[in-house]
Structure formats: C-alpha cells, structure tokens
Amino acid sequence: MTSNTRQFRAQAIPTIIMVILTPLFIGLGLWQLDRAEQKRNQGSSLEMRRKQPPVSLDGPHPDAEQLRFRQVVAHGRYLNDKSVLIENRKHQGKTGFHLVTPLRLQESGRTLLVNRGWIARDQIDQALAAADVGERLTVHGEVRIPQPPAIELKQKDAASEDTAPRWPFLTLEHFREWSGLDIAPFVVLQSPQDAHGFVRQWPHPRVSDIMHIGYAIQWFAFAIITLLIWIRLSLHKRGTKEAAV
Q1: Which pTM value belongs to this model?
Q2: Which of 28, 107, 152, 156 could form a disulfide with 219 if both were Cys (CB 3.0 to 4.6 A apart)?
C-alpha cells in the first residue's frame, strides 16, 4: 500500500527571498505604526494650540512655526491699496474670492497679511467698497502658513481702477515682490466674530492616522503571505510503501 506524506525541506532561493522580504515588510509595518502615532500626537498638539490664549502680535512674538494654528490678536490699519483677490475659492458650491489685505501694526509698524474672508463673484464691487476701512482695527484670527502649489502659474498682478489684482493662489514671496512690503511669514485667517465681515468658515485641518494604520496592516499581511508561500514551497511529497502483514 502506498501513502503520500509531506516532508519539510527548505530550498535555498525561496529561503533567501523570505529572509529578505519578511523583515522588510515587518519593518515597513512598524514604521507605518510609528507614523500613525506621530499623526495622533500632531493632532493633539494642534488642538492644544487652538485652545491656548491668543498671542498678541503687536510686540515681540514667537516665530511662524510656533504660531501655526495659534489664536492671535493684532491692532493696526489695513493697507487697502495692497489688497489682492485669490480666485476660485468655493463656499456652499458657489465660486468666489478670498480677500487678502496687509495690516500695518500700530505699535511696531510691522506688516502682516490678513485673509478677511470669502466674497461671492457677483458681489465683488460692493464687497470691496465695504472692505475699504481706514480706521484702526482690532483683528482676531488663527495663524496659517500658506504653501506654494506644486506647479506655479503666472500671476496676474495688474489691477483695474476699481478692483484688486486677482491671483490663482497666494504665496508670501510673490506678495513681497509685488507689494514691496516686508510682511510677516504667515497669514492670519480673520475670526468670524470680527467686524467688517465676509464669509469666514475656515476649514480646520484634520490629522488622521487611519491611512497609516491601513498601510501597516498591508505590510504585515505581505509578511504573512511571504511566510506562507515559503512554507508551501518547502513542503515536498514523499511516497512510502507499507508492507501488508
């Protein structure tokens, strides 16, 4: 009588591949878990920053990175002739602009940019007229650091007599070159509670670890699959004969 059994005998090439790939996949999975932990810590840090008392920008203050997502307050006057409109900003399905105006600080004389909110495309003339505020103001808001797009298109700097320049995006370096102003390296998203308001429903960046957890599971699954394939390739059939008594 003949029966088939399996004998475990590892082969050189599959074993070498397994020894290389399995630790690699496990290491990548652990790296993704570490990235997920970093994201959770980053999210907690952002929430803590938003809940801290406002920082006054009138005097000495921390650098831009330390101010990122912090609530701030500043006193000064708008330089309305240096306002720009950022195109193709959406609100509730409608297309409009963000109005960005430099604020000259009262005490220090320094200048910072304030995003004053969203304006509907068909209300631009009335909104700009209402935005031409000359008195001293108190501005509250949250600090953001704008990032340049991956592909920069040519900006349209020329303004007509009755409107501000319209740009597809805002970069601090381009604004400095265009305006000749030495602006602070950040933008203040003005608070909805401030006067002279436009639509100010600023999105809050959400830091999620879900993507990294998913990648970690994927890499660990690859490690398990590699081991299973190696085990399967290492099992070989062996025929044996059992003598009948």
Answers
A1: 0.69
A2: 28
Tokens of 201: 């429903």
